[in-house]
Amino acid sequence: MIYFYDIFEICIALFDDPDLSREYYENKALFQADMRDFLMVGRKKFNRPTAICDKLTEMDDPEGYSESDNGNGGSKYVLTKTVANSGEKVGFTFAINGEPVNAEYDSTDNSVTFERNVEANETWAVSWFYAGAFTADFSTCFRSDYNMDAIMDEIKTILAYATVSAWGDKEVGRVLEVRNILTDHDFKMYSPANSARAKTEWRNQMNRDMDTLASSLGWSILSTPKGGSRFGK
């Protein structure tokens, strides 16, 4: 099984976008939901080895929920809806009066404990999102002499690059659209052509890195002590 959460944790180091970094740290529930959309597009760019790629069609469903209430002077509150997957690999967003705060989820009683007391004239809020997982048994792709942990790490990294590349596709399209609607006067203050070129080069580099990683994965499989002749069987 490959949790989408683990893929997105790799993605954040690949992005060079302050808005996404802010969303990751302040609204992880939204970050998980946004990244899932890009993963669903990006996974189609991962097209080899086919024995692995074929497994990427098997996944569970996403689930999310938000709730809020007035405080009662304490810091701990029991949620009305049970968090998916016992809170594991789930993106949480916690807030008091709309401001992001730290808190901890406890799956034993489905509660959240905020970093401070929430007074009666204040409102607490919790949002969570479970993005899902690729649920296939990937071990059936390999012989027993394969280092499964190492290979699964490689697959997660490739999927992270594919997710980021899909995000890059959208960014390139957005910048090109801005370029098309700007007037000649706007061009004196802003260079959309340079911005579009930079975004395109960055996205293309993500694609090249992804292809390199996919090739490396193939060679990792073929270079096992017994060779790769039975790979995928």
Structure commentary:
This protein has 233 residues and is α+β, with helices and mostly antiparallel strands. It has two domains: 2-62 and 133-222, no CATH class; 66-124, no CATH class. Helix content is 46%, strand content 17%. The protein has seven helices and nine strands. It has helices at 4-14, 18-26, 28-42, 50-53, 148-181, 184-187, 192-222, and strands spanning 2-3, 63-70, 76-78, 91-96, 99-100, 103-106, 111-114, 123-130, 133-134. The strands form three sheets. The chain has a four-stranded antiparallel sheet with strand order 2-8-4-5, with helices on one face. Strands 3-7-6 form a three-stranded antiparallel sheet, with no helix packed on it. A two-stranded antiparallel ribbon has the order 1-9. Helix 2 packs across helix 3 and helix 3 (28-42) crosses helix 5 (148-181). The protein starts with a strand and ends in an 11-residue tail after the last helix. Mean pLDDT is 86; it is low at 226-233.
